[in-house]
Amino acid sequence: MSDLLEAYARVAGQDAVDQLQQLSAPMKGAKFVHVNSTRVGGGVAEILMKMVPLMNELGIDTSWEVITGEDKFYQCTKSMHNALQGDQVHISEDLLKAYEETNSRNADLLRPALENADYVIIHDPQPAPLLKLCPNRKGKWVWRCHIDASNPHPPVWNYLSGYVQDYDASFFSLADFAQQLPHTQYLIPPSIDPLSDKNMELSQAEIDSTYEEFNLDPKRPIMLQVSRYDRFKDPLGVIEAYKLTKQSIPEIQLVLAGGGATDDPEGEEVLKEVRGSAGKDTDIHILLLPSDAHKTINALQRVSDIVLQKSLKEGFGLTVTEAMWKGKPVIGGNTGGIRLQIINHHTGFLVDSPQGAALRIQQLLQDPEKLREMGIQAKEYVRENFLNTRHLREILSLFTALDNKSKNIIKPS
Ligand code: UDP
């Protein structure tokens, strides 16, 4: 077994790696392509960055393609994203035209690789039209929706489903997100990579240097939210929770760590609102990190006492998983994929308001034993459910099922 697979076996267990080897054996040498719309920033890029090398390590010839477009394309896809999460947005004909033309242009570039692939996963709405644009495809194509699509704005979903319905299957993170579609839908939650810079163990020196780098006081409690500057992540609600907490715990410090995703045009505006709300409070640290600041985020999650993810909508919330993996209880918005990860009162707390968040922050800071206990439970919960070995096992199982559609029983070799 390779060094990499041995390293996974040490963290996730030998069984997890044995299963991957068994499932990937019939796919050795097969061409597998993932397509999304950004190489950095956001959860999909985070997953693919480590999933693709692991798949190659298992002998599957895997590549990762990224479609690109102009402003109007990203405006359109951001509106689609917001509409799938329930916003009643109208998307103009002009923007939809940009969406279709951008996909058409990208299809011209990607067609040879995509039509030749044995397996394709198209991530999220941005590249969804590619299937229709590759009429001579020979492989199995699956659409992966990472978004909380539990209550999509109907006109936008109707438009998008025109592209999605022809896929061989689709998969979502939660049963709540499944849609009316003419093919089988699977439930596969995302995952983190325990060996990545974002999640690996760090030396004490690396952790300690974070205090100095960001001017944080190690003797005072720190609360953290890591997120793109996006309204659905509710950074203003986090600041409100911090201000409420400060009334009873004046020494509290808040870190909001974020950066941009290349496919997210709204970030700057939200960042401005966040800065406005923070005002001149020197205990609020608003960080704009480069896209490769994985170790920095890792260290920030480790120096924090409490991590928040106060999202109003959340497909999954990898930031929740990452913090839990570091033994931190997370106080998370009672929504979407956060509910899958935070077992209320056990691996963290689910909250519905800034007031609720402030209450739980105070409760945990005043009860260090409970904080520690919840953190331990959180880490074990991630080990059992949300590592990328489980994630890849389920993806390979999905394609195995598609490859063997006519069989009642599939016997692994
Ligand atoms: N992230 C990052 N830098 C940032 C903000 C976020 O590296 O400035 C990472 C974060 O650690 C996580 C991912 O981006 O791995 C965000 O995934 P999540 O599922 O939480 O949210 P999304 O951005 O996909 O909505």
Any chance you could write out the topology, listing elements then pairs?
Layout: H1 3-12, H2 14-24, E1 31-36, H3 43-57, E2 61-66, H4 71-84, H5 93-116, E3 119-123, E4 140-144, H6 154-164, E5 169-172, E6 184-187, H7 204-213, E7 222-226, H8 235-248, E8 253-258, H9 267-278, E9 284-288, H10 294-303, E10 306-309, H11 318-325, E11 330-333, H12 338-341, E12 348-351, H13 354-365, H14 368-385, H15 388-403
Helix pairs in contact: 1-2, 2-15, 4-5, 7-10, 8-13
This protein binds uridine-5'-diphosphate (UDP).
Uridine-5'-diphosphate binds next to helix 3, strand 8 and helix 11.
SS strand fraction: 5-15%
Sketch the topology as an H/E string, one letter per element: HHEHEHHEEHEEHEHEHEHEHEHEHHH
**Helix fraction bin:** 40-55%
- First and last CA, distance: 18 Å
Average pLDDT level: 96
Poorly predicted runs of 5 or more residues: none
- Biggest sheet architecture: 6 strands, parallel
CATH class type of the largest domain: Alpha Beta
Q: How many H/I helices?
A: 15
The tally of beta strands, per DSSP, is: 12
Number of domains: 2
Class of secondary structure makeup: alpha/beta
CATH-defined topology of the largest domain = Rossmann fold
Bound molecules: uridine-5'-diphosphate
Major sheet: arrangement of strands? 2-1-3-4-5-6
The assigned CATH architecture of the largest domain is: 3-Layer(aba) Sandwich
